[in-house]
Amino acid sequence: MSKPVLPTGVPEAAATPSATPSATPITAAPAPSAPGPASPKAPRGLYAVDAPHVSRIRVHHLSEFKRHHQRITAVTCYDATFARLVDAAGIDVVLVGDSLGNVIQGQDTTLPVTVDHIVYHTAAVARGLERAHLVADLPFLSYRSPEVALVSAGRMLAEGGAHAVKLEGGAEVAPIVQALVQAGIPVMGHIGLTPQSVHAMGGHRVQGRGDKARKRLIQAALTLQKAGCYALVLEAIPAELAEEVTAALAIPTIGIGAGDGCDGQILVLYDMLGLNPSFKPKFVKHFAQLGEAVVHALRSYRSEVMHGTFPAAEHTYTDPTVASAPRRDVAG
Ligand code: KIV
Question: Residue 138 belongs to a domain with what CATH number?
Answer without folding.
Answer: 3.20.20.60
